[in-house]
Amino acid sequence: MSANWKLCTCGAKRDFMSERNAEKELGRARAKRTRRADAHGTRRGLRVESRVYQCEQGGWHLTAESRSSYANRVHA
Asked: 26 exposed, middle or buried (CB, 10 Å; 0-12, 13-18, 19+)?
């Protein structure tokens, strides 16, 4: 059973409404992607969500972007 979510006001991203719900969904998403990759026989090129973050609108989202990549992109 996946966590409840709604469409965030920041755009077309899913808002999990709490950090806890986002963390739970992060675990589910990572497991699902790993199972799918194993079924195909390779994990090469697999984009896997690695963390949660809170957007400026207050919504909780999943992202595959690392914190350092985000920091470099925003503060560059």
From this structure: buried
76 pLDDT higher than 80: no
Distance of CA 30 to the CA centre of its chain: 9
Q: What's the chain's Rg over C-alpha atoms?
A: 14
Alpha-carbon distances of 23 from 10, 54, 59, 65, 76, rounded to whole Å:
20, 12, 13, 15, 28
Lookup: tokens for 21: 């719900």
- This prediction has a pTM of 0.79
Indicate the SS3 state at residue 17: coil
